[in-house]
Each structure stands twice: as C-alpha cells, then as structure tokens.
Amino acid sequence: MTASDKADEQRFLEEYNPKDYLSPLVTVDVAIFTLIEGRLHVLLVKRANHPERGRWALPGGFIDAGQDTTLSEAAARKLEEKTGVTAPYLEQVYTVGDNTRDPRGWSVTVLYMALMAHAPTAAFVDSVADTRWWPLADAMGQDLAFDHRQLLDAARQRLSNKTAYTVLPVHTLDAPFTLTQLQQAFEEVLGAALEKKSFRRRILSADILDEVGEAPPPGGRGRPAALFRAKAGLGEHAFVRVVGEGK
After folding, report:
1. Is 90 in the same domain as 201?
2. Which end of the chain has a smaller Cβ tally under 10 Å, C or N?
3. Are 190 and 155 found together in one domain?
4. In this structure, which long-range contacts are made by residues 97-100, counting pairs with CB atoms below 8 Å and at least 24 apart in sequence?
5. Residue 141 carries which DSSP code?
6. What is the dihedral of CA 153, 150, 70, 80, to 10 degrees?
7. In angstroms, rounded to a whole number, what is the distance separating the alpha carbons of residues 125 and 122?
8. What does the pLDDT look like over 81-90, one tens digit per residue?
9. Tally of domains in the chain
10. In Å, what is the CA distance from 206 to each residue of 161, 189, 209, 236, 241?
11. What does the UniProt keyword field contain (predicted)?
12. CATH number, residue 142
C-alpha cells in the first residue's frame, strides 16, 4: 500500500460511522456443565425481564465493545456477572443468527460450552430472577427461552463427541479424585460403560494427572485408592484413538 493509499484509508476510517448501517444484536450464551452426585447438570438462569420473562435460559448477554476484547472474554464475563461462577474450561461451539430467534430484532449469538466442578450459584444482577443447576435431562425437557433448547442440545452433543477422544470430563470433578470417579464421569457424559483396565491404561499412559495421595478404603478394609488431580494447564488433551477403541 502506497503512502497515498494509506492516507486515503485513514480519511475513510475517520469519516466512517458504523451507525449508518443497521446492525444485528450480538450476544454470547454459555452452556456450562458439572457433575452433581454423579449426574450431569447444566446451569440455567430464570429471566427477570422482557422478552421471555419468567422462562429459564442459558446464562449470557450482549457483548460490550467497550470492555470485551474477545468473544471468550465476553462469555466469561457474562457467566460470572449473572451466576457468580467461573469456568476453568471454556470453548466456542458455534454461531447462529437470523431475524426470528429474538423478538427484539435480527440477532446473532455465539454459543460457548463450559465445564467446572460443582459450586453454589446465585442471581447477581437484576435481569436474573433465579439460578439453578438442573439435571441435564430435566433441562432438555424445559421450554427454554428463545432458541436455547437447540443451543443446549448442540453443546451437549459437542461435550459427548469430544469426550470420546479427549479428557474433558476431568474438568467437572473436584480435586483430588480417584480413577474410579474419573471413569464414572466419562461414563455419565458418554452414556455408556467403559472397560476398567483399558480406561486406566489410557489415562495413566497419557501423563495428564498428578498423583497427590491416597484415599482410605471404605470401612477401613481393602487397598487405599490413589488420588489424582489434573496437571496444571490441562485443556482438552486429544487422544489418537476414541475411548473404548482397541481394548
């Protein structure tokens, strides 16, 4: 680009006004999962304001161009603002938009999936009347606001699909945990039983856990179980084979 072109572009940008064009509403929504008593749960918020007042929804909200430098920042901010929780794992699932999904106008939302160990939650802003961890099956049966039933289903499918070749369920457990608890987390997400020996070989050979002690055996009988925590900075860690393959 020549100096003249740069000068022309600078003048164009100085005169450009984005308000000259109609823009869609742009939001982020977060499907955040955890395990409670071995069952997969998702966090929902009850809307306190119109539109869709009184209906349950995924936590989320509008992107703030003044403070959000990335979409992930916006998702994490809205999650904490509305529910008080922060997630150690957050990933973008997909983007959807049209002129019918929100009665306020043409709307685009960026869906995120998040994972965390169970923690209490509460409504922290006036736009939220209540927050609750729902068993996933119960949440899927709710008449959720907007198109959030479809968004939740997409996030659920992403979690299940990626669990087959990653270690994502580790982020739903409080540390320390046993290998049995980790296997049960995988089985809950996948909806299928896994062979114990091959699962343990798969996890231990990946060198993704730190052993941090032992749990006393129930009733004081038997061998103590080793306790683990995920290595610092562990994200999703992809395996070459899907779980259950090549037993």
Report:
1. no
2. N
3. no
4. 97/24
5. T
6. -70
7. 9
8. 999 999 999 9
9. 2
10. 19, 20, 8, 12, 12
11. Hydrolase
12. 3.90.79.10
Poorest-pLDDT segment among 73-82, 135-144, 230-239: 230-239
DSSP H or E stretch at residue 8: helix 3-15
Q: State whether 123 and 225 are in the same domain.
A: no
Same domain, 143 and 187: no
Pairwise CA distance, residues 140 & 146, whole Å:
14
Structure tokens at 161: 């699909």
Cα–chain center distance at 143? 20
Residue with tokens 């499907």: 31
Structure tokens given for 124: 């922290």
Helices first, then strands: H and E counts in the chain: 6, 9
Q: What is the pTM of this model?
A: 0.91
Asked, as a colleague might, if the bond just before 135 is cis with ω within 30 of 0, I would say: no
Q: Could you tell me the residue range of the domain that residue 213 belongs to?
A: 173-230
Helix (H, G, I), strand (E, B) or coil at 44: strand
Q: Looking at the structure, do residues 143 and 34 belong to the same domain, yes or no? A: yes
Asked if 57 and 148 touch (Cβ cutoff 8 Å), the reply is yes
